[in-house]
Specification:
Length: 224
């Protein structure tokens, strides 16, 4: 059975597919938020780009449906097609890229239905080649005083698409890539579930390249 949360402020839970490539720390955070009743969602599919992803253990441990679509043996187009076929079959409403490091081609019916989080403030320190430790090394090398994370709707370019939410963290004088990464990840753990909750509550409107977030619904609404 899909993992789902308890009472929330919305009447329905949004159906998520979570795409991973590595250890699944973001997946684990979403599982915890859902279990605590803080995120009105259910994870109905976990899809990994490799059978070596540690995050698959989280899917197995929590009884989540999972599958591997191996980018090493498939073209980008064929791998993408298989991912979205699986999402349609599972009636996925929102695709969540969670440490997913492969290029994916998003079909028209999933426009503004795929979200990503990047460990910097887009449009800075983003694009092809900017992922993981490399992002934080670049921030420190540049001497930036602020960094953070960006939640955005994904499109068919790296780290591109309308921005939903950004959270800022300071860059300290004695930071290393590891200490900065830890601070940014704590921001990610707050920002990603929050943005997904807004979408679940039907509060997000895309207007060209900008996103408008509507006021929250009444706290008196109950889950069915």
């Amino acid at each position: 059975m899909p993992l789902s949360g308890g009472r929330t402020r919305t009447t329905k839970r949004i159906r998520l597919a979570v795409l991973i490539s590595g250890g699944g720390t973001t997946l684990r955070n979403l599982i915890a938020k859902i279990a605590a009743g803080e995120l009105p969602a259910e994870i109905v599919k976990v899809i990994s780009s490799t059978d070596q992803a540690g995050g698959l253990d989280h899917a197995r441990n929590f009884g989540l449906p999972w599958e591997v679509v191996d980018w090493k043996v498939l073209s980008v187009g064929e791998a993408s097609r298989r991912v979205f076929e699986s999402c349609r079959a599972s009636r996925v409403q929102l695709v969540v890229l969670a440490g997913f490091l492969k290029m994916i081609v998003i079909p028209p019916d999933f426009e503004h239905r795929v979200v990503n989080i990047h460990p910097a403030l887009i449009p800075a320190f983003c694009g092809k080649g900017f992922y993981g430790r490399k992002v934080h090394e670049a921030v420190l090398a540049y001497g930036a005083k602020l960094s953070g994370c960006t939640v955005h709707f994904a499109d068919n370019e790296y780290d591109h698409g309308p921005i939903i939410l950004q959270e800022v963290v300071p860059v300290l004088d004695d930071d290393t890539p590891e200490t900065l990464a830890g601070r940014v990840f704590q921001a990610e753990c707050r920002a990603y579930p929050e943005a997904i909750r807004w979408i679940a509550e039907n509060r997000v409107r895309v207007e060209g390249t900008r996103v408008r977030v509507l006021p929250p619904p009444s706290a008196d609404l109950e889950e069915v």
